[in-house]
């Protein structure tokens, strides 16, 4: 059994556990579970392993369980399986106590608030993570898959006979020899194609839409819209720049908020002021000073964790 097959079997076992827990007296569901169990020896192994892993976590407080995994106090094989279990439970909306944030803190690669990082994957593909982003990387003999769990990435593909896909909760993006930007919002996934093209399918896989260079597509799990012209300045975060062209102040501050801790806001009377310029993402304090000077606003800081822009007093 390879690790990929083990993780998939554990996800399926976790899903069956959730279904049986939701309807413990449903004979039809138990028969379906039994059929799944008998389908493969791997399924029997996964079901037994699920019970072992759950038993091993019983009584461990959430923060301690997270620390145990983060500190590497679980042997590598069991850590891999536990990750598969947690992700599987996350898919069904069922989680063990203390594992509500598991998809992010168990990610293969992640960045903190304000951090950007680039890395080269085993096939030569370049992956850049924006602030507060998390991905899982699943390569096998037949495919290359990057799962965007949170945040934003840029992918520059390397030549390889295996297809490269980027997946979010909303759908799948298949690279067609390309460089592209993917951002995961709460209600949709936003794709900007910088070079060549990307083929997009939603999670329902009703149809596929090709998005060419210079075009963008925002999609959820519903019907795919037509691509639109992209604002390529939105990808300048890779250079540490926030490029604004007539943005309302409130929207600009919401974007800058992604790169700093604490709360960032403005008063209602200045929220609609238009802002244009290029601002540094690696020094958000300097960016705020430049914004305040451009719009003749005052910067107010409360208890170091809340910064608010208001009219000059």
Automatic annotation (TrEMBL):
Residue ranges of domain FecR N-terminal in the record: 11-52
Source domain of life is: Bacteria
Coiled coil (residue ranges): none
Q: Where is the FecR protein domain?
A: 110-198
Task: List, alphabetically, the Pfam families matched.
Answer: DUF4880, FecR
According to the UniProt entry, its GO molecular function terms are:
sigma factor antagonist activity
Record protein name field: Protein FecR
Source organism: Pseudomonas reidholzensis
């Amino acid at each position: 059994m390879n690790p990929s097959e083990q993780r998939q079997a554990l996800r399926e076992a976790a899903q069956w556990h959730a279904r049986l827990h939701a309807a413990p007296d449903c004979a039809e569901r138990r028969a379906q579970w039994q059929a799944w169990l008998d389908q493969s020896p791997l399924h029997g192994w996964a079901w037994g392993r699920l019970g072992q892993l759950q038993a091993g976590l019983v009584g461990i407080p959430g923060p301690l369980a997270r620390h145990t995994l983060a500190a590497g106090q679980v042997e590598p094989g069991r850590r891999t399986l536990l990750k598969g279990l947690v992700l599987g439970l996350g898919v069904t909306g069922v989680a063990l106590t203390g594992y509500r944030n598991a998809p992010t803190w168990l990610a293969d690669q992640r960045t903190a608030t304000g951090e950007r990082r680039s890395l080269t994957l085993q096939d030569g593909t370049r992956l850049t993570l924006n602030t507060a982003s998390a991905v899982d990387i699943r390569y096998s003999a037949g495919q290359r898959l990057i799962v965007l769990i949170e945040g934003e990435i840029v992918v520059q593909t390397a030549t390889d006979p295996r297809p490269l896909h980027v997946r979010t909760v909303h759908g799948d993006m298949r690279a067609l020899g390309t460089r592209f930007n993917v951002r995961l919002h709460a209600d949709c996934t936003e794709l900007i194609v910088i070079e060549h093209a990307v083929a997009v399918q939603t999670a329902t896989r009703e149809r596929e839409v090709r998005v060419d260079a210079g075009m963008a597509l925002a999609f959820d799990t519903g019907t795919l819209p037509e691509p639109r012209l992209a604002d390529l300045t939105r990808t300048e975060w890779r250079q540490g720049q926030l490029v604004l062209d007539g943005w309302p102040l409130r929207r600009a501050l919401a974007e800058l908020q992604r790169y700093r801790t604490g709360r960032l806001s403005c008063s209602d009377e200045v929220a609609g002021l238009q802002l244009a310029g290029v601002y540094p993402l690696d020094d958000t304090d300097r960016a705020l000073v430049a914004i305040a000077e451009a719009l003749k606003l005052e910067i107010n800081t409360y208890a170091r964790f809340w910064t608010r822009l208001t009219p000059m007093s």
